[in-house]
Amino acid sequence: MSDSKTIIPISWPHAEVTATDYADESDRHAEIVREQTWQLHPAASRLELGANLVTVLDPGTGEGLVWLRLAPSAAVRTWDAAEPNLVIERHEGAWRAIPGATVLNHPWRVVPFSGGFFGRTRALHALQRELHPPQAGRDGVFLSNTWGDRGRADRMSEAFLLAEIDQAAEIGVEVVQIDDGWQTGRTANTVAEGGVWNDFWATAADFWTPDRERFPNGLEPVVQHARERGVRLGLWYAPDSSGECANWERDAAMLVELASRHGIRHFKLDGVKLLTPACVERFHALLDRVVETVGPDILFDLDTTAESRLGFWGRPAGSAIFVENRYTDWGTWFPHSTLRVLWSLAATVLPLRLRMEVLNPARNPDRYGTDLLAPGAYPPASLFAAVMLASPLGWFENSGLPDGFKAALAPLVRLWKAHRATLHGGAVVPVGGKPNGHVWTGFAVVDEAGGLVHLLVFRELHPREEAVLELPPGCARKSRGLTVVAGEGAGELRVRDGRVEAVCQLPRRQDFLWLQAD
Q1: What backbone phi and psi angles, to 5 degrees, belong to 302?
Q2: CA gap 325, 346 in Å, rounded
Q3: Of the candidates 409, 354, 347, 402, which has an alpha carbon nearest to the alpha carbon of residue 380?
Q4: DSSP secondary structure string for all residues of 210-231
Q5: CA angle (360, 361, 363) in 5-degree steps
Q6: 431 in the Ramachandran plot: left (φ > 0), alpha (ψ -120 to 50) or beta?
Q7: Do residues 502 and 493 touch, judged by C-beta distance below 8 A?
Q8: Cα–chain-centroid distance for residue 274?
Q9: What share of residues in the chain are helix, strand, coil (percent, to 5)?
Q10: pTM for the model
Q11: Cα–Cα distance list, 397 to 115, 144, 165, 393 (Å)
Q12: Is 235 within 8 Å of 145 (Cβ atoms)?
């Protein structure tokens, strides 16, 4: 594994080259991961690639290399448009890869792997653990956010948040993140007229102080109540992008003050507009300043749903990615689609870095009519299971959840916490078919040695109660069987012709099965 801008020879003359792009602005995109593959051939002697991630794989041996640019996507870095991210060309009868230059000298990582695309996933997940060593209590927590029920700021008050905290403690939510509306300043998302989405400091000097009408006692009573209930608070914040992020030091100081005064360690950062290289540099400086001052237990949820932002590879250290806004109010949340996004991203992005959503399925059933893939068609526990290998986001008001949903969720959350260290301790390899609402799909969690630890399986609207899923090669070396942790069904391992397979039975459609390797 190296940090390289040098020319590297490619020793496989018939290798396959896969360029992986990640769509920013998920408010406008449903398919986040987009891939295109070419096989090297003398007739096509030069490939100019703009993707952040490029894989070169020898299909005969399963060996390969990944070039990973730790930078915002090319769509954001318009100032780098004159030069491709990576050129693969034939030179004097041999192939080589030439990294392109960038204005901000964004580094490349070159990652060798073996074992085909399964091995690529393991290698990339290991790299991300190196860049951001997971820390208990900071990474992979169950976090709820008050925005997901579209109440916006209308219900924001001390009494509302006290109720949110009480219900969070009941179902096992660890961080209650207070979204837009806690502050004195009004954004374009919280009021119909007069709200702003930039120039926050010019709008009001007290923009980022707690709203005195909604919180006449400040946030202290809310913080104290959360502490008493064993819950922590998180906050939404929008750094000022005006003047090429000229106010970055003021934003950093405000975040430090909020962290120091209220013990906030999980900040969701939104509204960012990285339109120039100077913006990118100053935004990194802002984040660095906060971490250096507060300490490494702080985590930024970097929203990638709109505008020009760091994306999936702009800052893998110290951050999680807030992947998508989905709402039952608009009929845009489909559980199989959330699973599809996670499954697609997990092949390259460590799921622990991804804040993935589960909503209140009882809201707005009229938006879905008789759709068989509507949220209400799924057993409640399966909705949490679909995101529990990521960093789960309760995109709902805890106090608005139906009793039946809470009763189904809480036991699974307790089980998840008991196994969280091993669920999040290895590579998470997508297995089965790509989720589309009608397949068998899932994830295999393998340890550093490649051994199977957990298997999470989902039967969508598939007619058969049994499926055979191919698992990563060699993962059954230390495993003798599979034990059910949660869900109804059974599974067994078998090795046939060198292939490792799991034979799984799941009697109920749109349900899940969680298995642990013995």
Answers
A1: -90, 110
A2: 19
A3: 409
A4: BPTTT-TT-SHHHHHHHHHTT-
A5: 80
A6: beta
A7: yes
A8: 20
A9: 25, 30, 45
A10: 0.97
A11: 44, 8, 10, 11
A12: no
Nearest Cα residue to 357 out of 333, 376, 331, 329: 333
Asked if residues 426 and 409 have their Cβ atoms less than 8 Å apart, the reply is no
E-strand ranges in 128-253 read 143-145, 175-178, 232-237
Are 236 and 301 in contact by the 8 Å Cβ rule? The answer is: no
What lies within 8 Å, CB to CB, of 463 at 6+ separation is: none
Using DSSP's 3-state secondary structure scheme, residue 496 falls into strand
- In tens, the pLDDT along 50-84 reads 999 999 999 999 999 999 999 999 999 999 998 89
pLDDT tens-place string over residues 242-298: 999 999 999 999 999 999 999 999 999 999 999 999 999 999 999 999 999 999 999
User: Quick check: helix, strand or coil at residue 262?
Assistant: helix
Three-state DSSP class for residue 113: strand
Strands in 225-369 per DSSP E: 232-237, 266-269, 299-303, 319-322, 354-358
